[in-house]
Amino acid sequence: MALKWGIVGASKISHDFCTALRSQHTAKPHEIHAIASRSKANADEFAQRHDILHAYGSYEELAQNVNIEVVYVAVLNHMHFEVVKMMLEAGKPVVCEKPFAMNHNQAKELISLAKKENLFLMEGLWTRFFPVYRHFSAALTRNAFGDIREVYVKHGFCGSDSARIVRKDMGGGIVLDIGCYAIQLVVLVFQEAPKSIKAEGKINSNGIDLFFQADLEFSKGRRAYITCSGLEALENQSTIISTKGPICMPTYWCPSHYIANGQLHEWRLPITADNWNYTNSIGLIYEADHVFECIRAGQTISEIVPPTDTLLIAQIQDEIRKQIGVQYDCDESL
Length: 334
Prior knowledge:
six-stranded parallel β-sheet; 11 helices; about 35% helix; eight-stranded mixed β-sheet; Dihydrodipicolinate Reductase, domain 2; 2 domains; alpha/beta; 14 strands; about 325 residues
């Protein structure tokens, strides 16, 4: 039986997610049961485009729909906490787009609430579900790469004209927008909190970061070097230095291949005629199918994006923001 999804937010990523759900390439059956937007007109237009039965002009209406089995939250960053909390309090399992919350305190409260209510809750780090990452993660587990000494990530695009990036009241900033991709890779590789973080960045007149560099030190002298920019395109890949040779992953946040010690590991993504807003968005099918498996199995957490990783990512983001001087109204003290 198809998993009934409720979609909160008629955003670009919501369009891509729904397009993926309706794709013939999903391994599990999915149904988009409802869409909610703050604008009924936007919800109606989105529903017509994606053949969705119910369209709501408020998030509260979707929360009250008893037929929805899981909610996908893809609103602006500053609204994640409020909307996810609303859905959990209404008894709904939730997948929340990255960044999971504005800070560690918010993330911790939401995860505690989900645990209390015995509900599934997962950060939508779609990266982790790509076949490349599943293979890479398994190789890490069996120590196929030897000892990893350093991780380098460079990720950048021209986003200085995007309101959701540059405005503080929308939860903008590069640390939250794409920094999470780089940080999640570092967390996956080293599986521990850094001993120290040194960060610097560039902030705009709104007090929002458009660029940052971070040097993270881990146990046994291991290090990670992250560069993220919303001012210019960068190499957009990760390079990992291990005792058995380098590991290179182009387009590391949504990859189709990686090269380890000169050997190519490739999983070609399905080719579709659909219109997508973002690179390799067909890969959202892997996240959706994983959520199907978790919900049908009665699980409340994902072993691929566990809450411990979500909390550590948020903790690292908080520290980087603190050092470069970015603080939101919801930050109690960083």
